[in-house]
Here is the input.
Amino acid sequence: MKLILFILLLLFSKAGKSQSSYSGLLGKYPITLVLYHYSDRVSLAYYTYDKYDSPITINGSLKKGKLNLFEKDMFGKNSAILVFEDFEESNEEIKGKWIKSDNSKTYQISLQKDFVINSGDDLEWENKELLQSKSTKKHYFKTIITKEKGEFYARISGVKIFEKRTDKLIQTIKLDCQLTGIDNISIGDYNFDGIEDFSVFEASYAGSNTSSTYILRNPNSNKYLKSNFGGTSLKFDNNSKLIYEHNQCCGGRSHMNATYKVVNNKMILIQKKCLEYDDEKEGFIETECE
Here is the structure.
């Protein structure tokens, strides 16, 4: 959850540029690469080997036309670097190298730009399918991005669920969610049944308040179902099997905290507490929740 909040803060605090999807070869292996650059030279990225469909995060930086993207091992240490010289976002084709950290292996990279997701009132398109950076053991995801003329930002109008290795389309689910740069999907066990579910970032509100759409996997099949889970900045505790909600407003002067349990895939309220800042007492006091 802390990582998700960090990424969101990064997204909303920096001026983002367009997001691009590429496909081509790393050595002899087909890959898909997704890139998102910031005006402060931060580059967020991930790629997949098309045979395996498991995203690999490779964040890095773009400085003076040189794009460096770092692949890390399970311990967080650099295991390889992807280097693209003379990189320009406008280029339809990019070439680079994958270099193992000990320089024992090097592979050539050759990629073509498939599409760009950018902003502007005059732009419009339907159904650009953007590979996501998170996947489950069995499935990977592509968000369906739609851009209407007159709306400055594109939106997520759906998500497609694919089976890894076979690329079989399992399901398409309609959505209406805010597009937040590069990380729109998270993986978790939201109903505490021991099976991986996924969520799609829905919207950001005042302060740090956010919401997501929670999509649960049927334990008896590969199908998923949109849940009725709702609330602000939900946190899921797999140890206690409880869901915690936190909503704040008015510059942090008002807070609502709620606790839920899950019964038959529904959120059941257990406890709710509201706090308001009292200027005379110079501290928070408990108030009646509306």
In short: Residues 138 and 164 are 6 Å apart (CA to CA).
